[in-house]
Design brief:
- The protein contains 18 helices and 17 strands.
- Helix 15 runs parallel beside helix 16.
- The longest helix is centred in the first third of the chain and has 65 residues.
């Protein structure tokens, strides 16, 4: 028999032997012990929770009785107060007399200032000459029909009721209510002392379980969850009838969760009714500690499993460790690290994969260098083409402008003196020189605006009163670098097209300012403007990939240089209204680079 067992054992695979040994020696005993320990601690935790809940309920009961002693003592003092008696039974002839009486009565407010347990004090009287000031309230049919009012009038004992809000007497809290007799006047009334609901709720706020205080009508007057205050216990649909359960432990499903409910009663002295203190806790929350112990047991099982299987996994760990190292190096390569080198040694399959990985990384690096070199060559070629086109544009002189300017100078020389002619000739020479000196580098805002100013002075000389201009530059940005010949074409466009079919004076304004690390440029005029359909054509001609015949080559050149240097978001923005003028905006990053 023993030899058969040994033979069958020898025929089994090693992993099967280890699994059977693990189940028989480790898993079954540990599971049996774990189940027994879990049940024991679960029962202990449940018993302790019930005892704790009962102690908490008893403590809350004592604290509540202490808190309710304050409104009871206050009501005893007010029961025979002469000022209340006088106001409640005096037939006031007019409002002035009533107002003076109310103004001189400060007793209620004094008590409220002294005791934080109180929320308000009110006296309900059948005196029809009174006016509701939220302290003395004349009884109407609605008040007289309220259940708390009827019970107070029928008994000399103290009543405890949850009073909901009303327009005539805001409450929404637990209140002491008692009837007051005035034998000498053969009259009566009802005294109400409202309790501060925050003081009640604060007693329950630190409770570990869901605890609440319920009055004899079923209203929740205080709770750990303050949202429940004012609702009835029946509306919570917990499946428990408190009226049939005076005191003790109830097991019930609360919101489909097995729970324990501790109920206790409390009736203050000289009171017609009392309260029930209810503490609810789910069994699941209590046995969570026992589950933690179970989890510890499971961790112990896993630990034993790892110890028992250690010898089996030695070889696999050595192998998987090398594979993990190679996997991490592959992840680094996938994230873009082309400097990674695999250092996994060995002549087995993993070692061969490591050497092939290093060869692959070397090949990728070579290909990347070729791609970068080719890309740089293409970029240099594109930039060179743009610079050639820019130089060609900058070297062009509008012959009409030059001839018209010289003709104007000649006419002025004929009519006026030499000083003005000399100035215009100087400006013209300076402008021509600046245009011819334009290269592929950058210039400053100050230098560019000097050329624009010279250009505008010459045009002013030419058009006289038909042209006016204004240049505005924010201080501190004059030395910012921008591409050359970037503003003058926009000003030229404003003058040429602004004066088109325009008899009135045309004003050209150039504004430059800094905001949010951007230098903003605006060139606007009040000339003829551009029709919407024509404006679409202009925008298409300057932003399209190909130059169109008769397109505005100056605006297109400026737009393409801006987008090439700084990006599409820094290109020209053109807006215009016929008869109102045209406005062109663009921005340049501060510092002159994208």
């Amino acid at each position: 028999m023993l030899s058969k067992i040994v033979r069958r054992t020898n025929d089994m695979k090693l992993k099967h032997k280890l699994v059977i040994s693990y189940v028989l020696v480790v898993m079954i005993p540990v599971l049996i012990i774990g189940v027994g320990v879990t049940y024991y601690f679960r029962q202990q935790a449940m018993d302790q929770a019930i005892q704790q809940a009962e102690n908490n309920v008893e403590r809350i009961k004592n604290q509540t009785m202490t808190l309710l002693r304050v409104p009871m003592d206050i009501s005893n003092l007010l029961l025979f107060n002469s000022e209340i008696k006088e106001i409640a039974n005096t037939k006031f002839a007019n409002m002035l007399e009533l107002t003076q009486s109310y103004h001189s009565f400060t007793l209620f407010n004094d008590y409220l200032q002294q005791y934080r347990e109180l929320y308000g004090i009110r006296f309900f009287s059948f005196n029809s000459t009174l006016v509701n000031n939220y302290e003395f309230i004349p009884v109407d049919t609605q008040i007289e029909s309220a259940s708390w009012f009827k019970k107070a009038m029928e008994s000399t004992s103290i009543g405890w009721f949850y009073i909901p809000n009303s327009e005539d007497y805001p409450a929404d809290t637990l209140s002491l209510v008692r009837g007051v007799q005035f034998p000498e006047y053969q009259s009566r009334g009802v005294l109400m002392v409202l309790i501060n609901r925050d003081e009640l709720n604060n007693m329950l706020s630190q409770e570990p379980f869901n605890t609440m205080i319920v009055d004899s009508q079923g209203y929740i007057v205080a709770a750990k969850d303050t949202k429940l205050v004012g609702s009835t216990f029946e509306s919570l649909n917990m499946g428990v009838d408190l009226r049939s359960q005076k005191k003790g432990l109830i097991e019930a499903n609360v919101y489909d969760e097995p729970s324990n409910i501790i109920v206790d009663e409390m009736t203050p002295s000289s009171s017609m009714n009392g309260f029930q203190i209810v503490s609810i806790f789910s069994k699941e929350s209590i046995v969570s500690n026992a589950k933690e112990i179970s989890l510890i047991g499971m961790l112990f099982i896993i630990l034993v499993l790892f110890v028992a299987m250690a010898l089996v996994y030695v070889i696999s760990l050595l192998t998987t460790n090398r594979l993990l190292r190679l996997s991490r190096q592959l992840n680094r390569l996938a994230l873009g690290d082309l400097k990674v080198v695999s250092q996994v040694d060995g002549n087995d399959e993993i070692g061969q994969l490591s050497r092939q990985f290093n060869h692959m990384v070397s090949s990728i690096n070579g290909l990347m260098e070729q791609v970068v070199e080719t890309s740089e060559q293409n970029n240099r070629l594109a930039i060179a083409q743009k610079e050639i086109k820019l130089k060609m544009m900058a070297s062009q002189i509008n012959p009409h402008f030059l001839f018209n300017a010289l003709e104007s100078i000649r006419m002025k020389a004929h009519i006026k003196g030499e000083a003005e002619i000399a100035n215009i000739v100087r400006l013209l020479g300076k402008l021509i020189r600046k245009n011819l000196e334009i290269g592929s580098g950058k210039t400053t805002i100050k230098a560019e605006m000097e050329m624009v100013h010279s250009y505008l002075q010459i045009q002013k000389f030419r058009y006289e009163d038909r042209l006016d201009f204004e240049l505005s530059i924010q201080k501190g940005i004059e030395k910012e670098h921008i591409p050359p010949l970037i503003i003058q074409p926009l000003v030229e466009n404003a003058i040429v097209h602004g004066l088109e079919n325009q008899e009135e004076e045309v004003r050209v304004e150039v504004t430059i300012y800094e905001e949010n690390d951007l230098v903003h440029f605006t060139v606007q005029d009040n000339g003829a403007g551009i029709r919407p359909e024509r404006l679409k054509e202009v925008i298409t001609s300057i932003t399209g990939p190909d130059e169109q015949e008769n397109s505005r080559i100056g605006l297109r050149n400026v737009h393409q240089r801006l987008t090439l240097s700084y990006g599409e978001e820094h290109g020209l923005i053109i807006s215009s209204k016929p008869g109102k003028g045209t406005k062109i905006d663009f921005t340049v990053p501060k510092g002159g680079s994208k």
